[in-house]
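Appendix C reproduces, verbatim, an entry submitted by the partner laboratory led by Prof. M.T., so that reviewers can inspect both the input and the predicted structure.
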Amino acid sequence: MKNYSLYSSLFFIGLLSPFEGIAKTVSVSSPDEAITISISDEKHPNYQVTFNNETVITSSKLGMLFKNTHGFSDGFKIAEVSQKQVDSHWTLPWGERENVSDKHNELLLTFTTSRDSANKYKVRFRAFNDGIGFRYEVPKQKGLAHVEITNELTEFSLANAKQSTAWWIPARGWNRYEYTYNTTNVESVDRAHTPFTFKLPSGTHLSIHEAALVDYAAMTLNQKRPGTLKADLTPWSDGSLVKTTANFKSPWRTIQISKDAVGLLNSNLILNLNEPNKLGDVSWVEPGKYVGIWWGMHIETNTWGSGDKHGATTSETMRYMDFAAEHGFSGVLVEGWNKGWDGAWFSNGDVFNFTKSYDDFDIEKISQYGAKKGVRLIGHHETSGSVTNYRNQMSDAYALYQKHGVNQIKTGYVADGGNIKRIDEDGIVRKEWHDGQFMVNEYLHSVTEAAKHKISINTHEPIKATGLRRTYPNWIAREGARGQEFNAWGTPPNPPEHTAILPFTRLLAGPMDFTPGIFDMSFNGLGSDTNRPQTTLAKQLALYVVLYSPIQMAADLPKNYQANMPAFQFIKDVPTDWHESIAIAGEVGDYVAFARQERNGSDWFVGALTDENAREITLKLDFLEKGKRYQAQIYRDGKKAEWVNNPYDLIIENKAVKSSDSITLPLATSGGAAIRFKALD
């Protein structure tokens, strides 16, 4: 049926294309035929999407406008159509799964108009079983050479917007992506970042995002009319959206689609729309777990700047390395080691020097000590948004780290949104957005430069993830959402529902460095009104499985782990690199459960967590290998556990299980459960 529909549409075009003004429509369906994209040139180029015979995206515009030349808008007609089918597999060098299936049907449409310049563009559509992607491809042509895009016309029009529920954070705000999520109907959305996740009255779940964001402005969504979300590209400081040259390709505009919330979590759509690895051998990219001189600064035990409470000292780093070596951690993150942290660094990133350390930090001695212990120093570069200062020192800074065996760097771009400082070629200071085209390219430049030194990058205050970890596997993680540090001083801290929303929103884009594992919830006192993690201890353990990152931090102070070694055992055991990952239960903002199998091993791990509501969930264990016996090592909330006044009540128990069994987990308020299924056969 799918091929008949496709070929009959092409035949229809061939019959009618000589007649101007007669609308033409073509369509392409997903391999399982559940999703259909229909593209028409009636009035203006547009598309719509159906899922299981329900229209989920109504007729929505395509096109873009340019400065000083004709745009791609009304009057364009479908002139050429080509098709392709793909059924392939590829391997992730690290990730939430080892083997990825790429199965899709593709249409490439050429739109033309009768004028003699700027008269042609292409749109490539791909239909997967888990969603769709489309992008613009603009060839070089008369009237188009150097290009400035002033408006992308792309729309995502929704039926039943008032009855549909959306989970979203505001775009173009001072705090970048670091907001708690709003839960509203779609019509109440103003300007939103992507991934933008929503649920239709039918129960169908969708998430709008983009893939392969390179040399282009990030797409936010602006609700121009009720139910119509329009692509709103983040501008340069001079107001232009994108500066490029023909031949260019836009990022993929993506819509992940599932009959339920859990299906979104099992999607490979974003990765499949990115290009394969461009770096060659990336065996030097190493997933792992680390500890760090980090949390102490956030709870004011230490300081980034020099002085009596300076955290980044030789002796303190060596002490952390001892702890890491004893408990099997591969690295120690050290923030505040390089000169520039004293004074008003937050608003003056020009003070940072990335090759000179404070007098109490001996990088050579530390790296030699770590080598003997089998523990690497994890680097840190804070730019405070002064990216020209960072770029000028980048090569020397990466060479210094490479010399001392550092193969991972956490970079930071702390600055208000729209306040990234660059100095242009005329020496004039410009202020840019974190997600404008300039910074899209700047972030990628840091990654490609780091690759030359066999260094991986973990970007904080980043551009959002769009699957580029496939193309550049040393872009090992990034932040891009409200992380653990807000629980130290956020006022208010992250609410209990926050980590029950993140998997269905931010984490659909890619790994997040959330930094879980806080064991001391009472550094500011217990209760509901203090800055502290609003979770139980069991939920902190569950985060290691639920919030995927190939580099996970044991974020708390060593003394707090030493005080609770039985619970710490799960953090020591849980891997960060997986052969397979399966979301097995969940509803957005309420609860979620993941099962993941370790790479190069037989053990499985499960993490489950809930929002502010206590609940009981029963999980089938059919993901386990049939015929094998497992010991389920369970870490769960105790009977009296609740996050406000009794977060520490934790039960650790063992059970023998097999794949035909189920397991019932009582989750306390803002509680969780973490399980290791250790293979016995």
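Confidence is low (pLDDT under 50) at residues 1-20. Additional entries are available on request from the coordinating office.
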